[in-house]
Amino acid sequence: MTLLIVALSLIGLARAESFYEVGDTNGWTTKMGLDYYKTWSSSKTFYVGDSLIFLYNNDLHNVMEVSFEDYESCNPNSPLATYHSEYEPVKLNSTGRYYFICGVPGHCESGQKLEVLVMAPASQQNIPDTTQQNNSSTSTSNPKPNPTIPDPKPNPTIADPKPHPTSPDPKPEPSPSWEDPLVVLPVDAATIASLPHNAASDPCVWSGLSMLSLVLLQTLVLL
Questions:
Q1: CB 92 within 8 A of CB 114
Q2: Whole-prediction pTM value?
Q3: I need a labelling partner for 200 at 20 to 30 A (CA). Which of 56, 97, 140, 220 fits?
């Protein structure tokens, strides 16, 4: 059904082929200057199926279809096609650029050269790309499911390291025992006899001190 609609559209939009006289009433000549045919061509719109008609005196001129390089250099030695008959239509069968020159020496250099840009018919430019649309609609109606990504494996748990064995508290060292300085060590007679003699150990000294103590005590009592 879609192809039928497209075919009917082509029939309805089909355009008649056009014929263009190159240079209009001036024809194909060297008298119009260097840029005349370039200006003439840019003012027209050419489609596939149109035809060019070169009006010229075939005793003085000719028409050669050439490549772009030969068109630029005005080289007539390797033409793609050559036309000698006046009023012979040159049909434009495909899209792209066509290049024409006059092969008579010096004529191309004088401006007798033509470049034509041929476009596709408007009916072909407006044809929708049904294949692309069908493919896009199919891909839209049946979207591919997104692949499910499995959950990542959980990281293995690291067991707590074994506790280090605790060393027992060191036993406190016993503090050194100190002897009581007030303890009077026993002294025997031999030890006393070995001590050096001094005034404090003299019996006379002790007698004098006793008398002095008594006197001081009596004085205090009287006071």
A1: no
A2: 0.52
A3: 220
110, 30 Cβ separation under 8 angstroms: yes
Check pLDDT > 70 for residue 187: no
pLDDT at 10: 46
CB atoms within 10 A of CB 80: 12
Nearest to 110 by CA among 158, 68, 60: 60
Q: In the structure encoding, which two tokens stand for residue 213, read together?
A: 């103590």
Q: Give the integer Cα–Cα distance in Å for 37 and 110.
A: 11
DSSP assignments along 182-201, one per residue: TPPPP--HHHHHHSPP-GGG
Helix/strand/coil for 211: helix
Q: Which tokens in the block code for residue 129?
A: 């790309």
Asked if 67 contacts 99 with a C-beta cutoff of 8 angstroms, the reply is yes
User: What are residue 140's DSSP bridge partners?
Assistant: none
**CA neighbor of 92 nearest in space, from 57, 45, 37:** 45
pLDDT band of 218, cuts 50, 70, 90:
confident
* Region label for 27, one of left (φ > 0), alpha (ψ between -120 and 50) or beta (otherwise): left
- The average pLDDT across 54-71 equals 94
